[in-house]
Amino acid sequence: MQFPDSELWDFSVNFYRLGSVEKACLRLQDQFGLNVNLVLFCHWLALKKQQVLKLEQWQLLVSAALPWDETITMLRKSRKLIGTTNIAWPSSFEKKTKDEVINIELNTEHMQQLAIEQAWQQMKVESCNEETESIIRQNISHYLLASNSQFSVDDIWQDLQLLLTAAHQHQNSNQTIAL
User: Fold this and answer.
1) Total count of domains within the chain
2) Which of 34, 133, 139, 176 could join 28 in a cystine, given CB atoms 3.0 to 4.6 angstroms apart?
3) How far apart are CA 128 and CA 133, in angstroms?
4) Residue 2 lies in a domain
């Protein structure tokens, strides 16, 4: 499947591969119910665009992502279910099926990111001169409010700090996170 170019997707794929990013993202998803695509978007805004969005803008982004959430959740549950049942099927069939579900799940995540990026592109947002940590904190706070999360930035800051540390280490090693 050929997707349109996406700075957000390219950033996310590369960022997700860094150190403890995957583990932190999955914990934010599984323990706090956060949308990893929107968490990655927060970091992309801070690291690549230096932008803080208003609460109203975050509400639009959460709305843009929402239609994809149910499909992504269903695919994730299906992927995790494969191999846990007592159905007698060859292991090669199980692996192939799981790989296909993973591919569909990733394509659906990609489509959700395209929807998020398209909604963002329609907004008027100016860059700011604030520190990366401050931008992430503000954007995450607005995202949590927009999504009616019961958690605060302080509740999830440990995982967010892991993401920020991975990004700084990556940038300091003279590598760049791809756009």
Assistant:
1) 1
2) 34
3) 13
4) no
